[in-house]
Every structure is written in structure tokens, then in C-alpha cells.
Amino acid sequence: MNTASTEAIPGEYYLRGIPEMASGFKLNADNSFEFFLVYGALDRLGSGKWSVEKNQVVFNSKSWSGKDFALIQSKKTADEGITIRITDNNESLLRYMHASTGSRREDVWEDSDEHGIIKLPASSSTSMISLVFEFCPERISIFTIEGTEHNYFEFRIEPWLTEFFFKDFRLMITNEGFHGPHPMILEKEFDYVKKK
User: Fold this and answer.
1) Which architecture characterizes domain 6-61+164-194 according to CATH?
2) Residue environment code for 140-150, b if the CB has 16+ CB neighbours within 10 A, otherwise e
3) d(CA 48, CA 184)
């Protein structure tokens, strides 16, 4: 590929080197792009705009809203602790949710059951509920619950739950395609080969 010409860049690029994972980018001539990842039962998609800076392709998309869940209702019950229920038409997702009363990855997280129910211990210091989808660990949704006596919280999944959002994600332009990290594996570098 002629790295000096952006006209040569549009096309399809496929990740090489990760067994059992299919992933890649489709870069269009209008500077839009589409991203996909298929890994077992997990499908993630993304889209946005690409540009070229020096010898790199830069990917950006709309910003994440800050939450992958919406609080539908809350109430006080006679149950001990905090009960969280997550709902969605796609019930196969419900067993992959995690909740905590902290906001850090190293905090204690409880798993959902197959019905999307999560039980958390209550304490006088509980002021937040954090939710995360197992297959999108880069995004934690934090809800403030301070000042309420409620201990039952029902959430719905937002439609963008599995969408991947890009912010200044960069790949080096090479003769074969691109080289650099994968959006979900930033600590390693890989080759993305352009489809001929």
C-alpha cells in the first residue's frame, strides 16, 4: 500500500494472529468505517469516521453516553440487602451481568443469575450501584443511590450495550494493511491485512 495516499486506504482489513477470533475494519471512501468482532457467542460492532495523521489511521466514533443501563424503577422491600433486576428482550444476555456497590474493578462484584437477578449486601455506606456487562468490561455504569431507603432496583439494557466506541484509536499504515493494538487487547500489537 502506498502510505502517502489516502485514496489507497479504503477497503476491508482483517485481524491476523488471534485463533478463534474474527475481527476487522471496513474503511469507506467517505471516511466512515465499520468495525466488527466475533468471538464465540460475543458479537461487537462499532462505526464512526477515520482519518490519516502522518503514517497512522485514526478512528473516532460518537461518544459513549456514560451508562449501558437505564433505571426503570426502585422501591423498598422487606428483603435483606439490595436486589437488582436487569431486563431485556434478549434473555440470553441476562446471566452475564455484574454489580457492585463500588466503582473499581478490584471491588467485590456479584454475578447475575439466568433471570438477571443480582443480590448485593446492604451497608450504611452504600451510595452507589455499579453495573457492567461481562463482555464489555471497559465500561462501568455507575448509579447514585444515596439518600434513598429503596433496596430493589430494576434496570433495562440500553440498545448500544455491545457497541464499541472509538476515541483516537490509532493503527500504523503498513505495506500489507495496518499494525497496532486491537480495540479490546491494547497491550499487544497485531497485523490487519487488507483484503485483495
Assistant:
1) Beta Barrel (2.40)
2) bbebebeeeee
3) 17
CATH 2.40.128.640 residue window(s) in the chain: 6-61+164-194
List, for residues 22-57, the tens digit of each pLDDT value. 999 999 999 999 999 998 767 889 999 999 999 999
> What CA–CA distances, in Å, run from 126 to 43, 101, 144?
34, 6, 9
* CA of residue 194 relative to chain centroid, distance: 25
pLDDT tens per residue across span 110-119:
999 999 999 9
CA of 180: how far to CAs of 37, 68, 141, 158, 167, in Å?
Answer: 16, 28, 28, 30, 15
Partners of 170 in beta bridges: 58
